[in-house]
Amino acid sequence: MSDKTAGSTRHRVVVIGSGFGGLFSTQRLRKADVDVTLIARTTHHLFQPMLYQVATGIISEGEIAPATRVILRKQANAQVLMGNVESIDLEKKVVTSRLLERITETPFDSLIIAAGADQSYFGNDHFAQFAPGMKTIDDALELRGRILGAFEQAELSDDPEERARLLTFVVVGAGPTGVELAGQIAEMSDKTLKGTFRNIDSTEAKVILLDAAPAVLPPMGPNLGGKAAKRLESMGVEIQLNAMVVDLDYDGLLVKEKDGSTRRIESQCKVWSAGVAASPLGKQLAEQSGVELDRAGRVKVLPDLSIPGNPNVFVVGDMMSVEDVPGMAQGAIQGGRYAADAIKAELKGARPEDREPFKYWDKGSMATISKFSAVMSVPVPGFKKNLETEGFFAWLGWLLLHLVYIVGFRSRLNTIVDWSFAFLTKGRSQLTITEQQVLARNALDHLAQIDLDRRKEAGELLPDDVAETPSGKPVLSDPTPKVRKAEAEDSDAEAKSKPAAS
Ligand SMILES: Cc1cc2nc3c(=O)[nH]c(=O)nc-3n(C[C@H](O)[C@H](O)[C@H](O)COP(=O)(O)OP(=O)(O)OC[C@H]3O[C@@H](n4cnc5c(N)ncnc54)[C@H](O)[C@@H]3O)c2cc1C
Fold first, then answer.
1. pTM given for the model
2. pLDDT < 50 stretches in the chain
3. Could you say which of 39, 176, 184, 421 has the lowest number of CB atoms within 10 Å?
């Protein structure tokens, strides 16, 4: 076990996560007299809003996932550690992370937790293997493999029923991600792949967007939601609302209608974008501090984004539950910066009890539907209602805004080149798929299971220490299982060092 900040005399800030909340809070501390340790389980900062473009071959993964340590190279007070944070000890003020066999303990004076959210299958975790979500680069590449792989299999099939199943794509969840994906799959089959197969006609592919709710894009309101639905339908996307998925398997899904009746859709390629569950680290905080969690496992933070009894432990981004703050990039960026500012203020003598509450600045929301088409809702100062627009100008606004937030000049340049190619022609430059992309999920889950079994055998874990994430991955359920072994070793050593009773 190692402590990577041993010897530090400055105020130690530990940041968990390299997403929007984690990266922007770290950068905000650039000039502060602190040592920042950012711990994340991936080596990159992921720009999730453009994951769907990776999944559908418009851009490459590198363009939206630059290496965190390269971004922070010039920030001398920041250190980046790769590791999965397994436990947070609020009393000892230590974060414990693991990278393979290596366990690292990182002490903190202040802690910013920005570990985001995972996909939620609403208790049906086994759905994950048949309908992956879209939260990570792995997810996006797997989806690309599944989408293009389905066309490849259809080309080889002589059975009309099987072909129909292979050419039916179902996107579950009609929020922004579902809308963007459904639009892109339709555009890819109608334009990019048109004329590239000899036995099938890719334009005959059927794309279904379904949701248990009665509307498309509910957070954007009925006007923009209705416009998005119309545009999708004009592209051939079939929208099925009030339709709840009650079962899923390799070849299709079972849908329950509003009247209680059920029907089956035959489809090999399914995508899940229907719900989120906050990082399980929230549960550890709840157990130790008494802070409440909402239904999605988000932490109901205090007005200054800290948790009760721990004024220097902040929870930001998708993990926090704050009224009127949506689970969007801006919520995480603003929350991360607020927490960093609170830490800086305290170093200058400010008292936590005097902090101004966190205020969210709503900058609006948008979603793309297809090439040259998007919907956008932006607040206008002095007006109660948001300005709502759709079509080409909304799409242009989306493009420019996302370009601004992509980190790094080179990533921006590459994105512009790929976008130009995709938008000015029917082409997409990232249509490579590999077997590994499609099959690795199961192999990785299998390896994780082997590792946990090994740790159980070694006495590090008890059976109850292992639970499953919302997407079905085995994880630790006990915040401090490793302590068990350490305690056992300590008492062993103690027993050995005690003189024999006379
Ligand atoms: C497909 C998709 C499209 C989206 N589109 C938009 C959009 O158009 N506009 C918009 O505003 N928002 C959009 N969002 C939402 C936005 O991306 C999130 O709100 C934002 O990323 C939240 O930031 P965060 O820092 O809280 O979490 P994240 O960005 O998810 O970062 C979490 C970080 O924590 C790390 N982590 C998690 N658990 C651990 C652990 N135990 N140990 C160590 N590290 C850990 C992860 O590796 C990651 O680095 C989209 C999200 C998705 C998934």
1. 0.88
2. 470-471, 478-502
3. 421
